[in-house]
Amino acid sequence: MSEQLSFSFSDPDAGLHCFGRSGESALLLSSSGASTCGPVEVVRAGERFEIALPSSGETLLEPLGPAIAFPEHRRTAWLCRARGKAADDRELDGFGCVWLGEHGLGGLARRRSIWICFGESLAVALLAERTSGNPGHDEPVAAFVARGAPLEASPLVEPLLSSTYRADGQLLRAGLELWEGEDAETRERARALRVGGETVAAGELAQDGVAAGVAFLVWHHDGLHGGGAYLSETAAS
C-alpha cells in the first residue's frame, strides 16, 4: 500500500479549523459554517509542509521539532506551527499536525489520533488503533509528550484516554491521563499530566472508503490553554 500525508490545523482564536488528506478533499470549519474543497495538495518542501486549499490560499505547517515515530503503527507525526490566510482574508496563526502513514485503514476497524499544542514548547501526540478482529474496547494507546524549543518527544507510560459523546456520536469532551516514567510500577515517582479538552468545532468527511469524524478542541493543563484535534477514522458504510 502507498503512503499518504494527512493534516489538521486549528486557530481557536480566529475560529478557523481544517482537516484533509493529500490528493483528497479537505473539511473547513469556521464561524460561518462547514465546507469542503479539493483535491488538496500537500507538498513537503524542505523542513515544512505547504498545503494548497482551492479558493483558500496556502497554509504553511512548520514542524516545531523532529518527527515523532510510532513504529508499531507504522506512522509518523510532525507537530507544527500553522500560518496562512483564510478565504475571507483572515490571518491564520495557530498549530497543526501532519501524519504520514499507510493509505486508508489497512484492515483496521478504527484509528484515533490526537494532537495538542500548548504553545511552541509543550505538545502531545497520541495514536490508538483497533484491529478488525477485536470488536471490544481493548484499544492500545501510544502517546508522546514533547517539550522544549525545538520540541523533543518522549514516550509516555500507559496513557489513558477518556471520551464523552453526544447521542448522535459527536465528541463533546476528552480527557488524558499521561504518565512520564520508566514503567507503570514507578507511578508514585512519575509525573502525571492531566489534560482535558472541550469541542469547539466538529465535522465529518467520508471519502476513499474511510469515514473521518474530526473534532477540534480547546485543551487545558495546569493553567495552560491550547488547541488541537481529535480524529476518529472507521470504514465508510
Helicity, as a percent range? under 10%
Count of DSSP helices? 0
**Main β-sheet: number of strands, strand sense, barrel status?**
10 strands, antiparallel
Flag low-confidence runs.
Answer: none
The number of E-state strands comes to: 19
Name the beta content range.
Answer: over 45%
What's the N-to-C terminus distance? 21 Å
Total separate domains? 1
Mean of pLDDT? 89
Content-based structural category: mainly beta
Q: Helix and strand string, N-terminal first?
A: EEEEEEEEEEEEEEEEEEE
Rg result = 17 Å
Globally, the shape reads: globular
Describe what you observe in this structure:
With 237 residues, this protein is mainly β. It has one domain. 0% of the residues lie in helices and 68% in strands. The chain has no helices and 19 strands. The protein has strands at residues 3-11, 16-21, 26-30, 33-37, 41-45, 48-53, 57-63, 68-70, 75-85, 91-102, 108-117, 122-131, 141-147, 152-155, 157-165, 171-180, 191-207, 210-221, 224-235. The strands form 2 sheets. Strands 1, 2, 3, 4, 5, 6, 7, 8, 9 and 10 form a 10-stranded antiparallel β-sheet that branches. A 9-stranded antiparallel β-sheet has the order 14-13-12-11-19-18-17-16-15, with no helix packed on it. Strand 11 (108-117) and strand 12 (122-131) form a beta hairpin. The protein is globular and about 50 Å long.
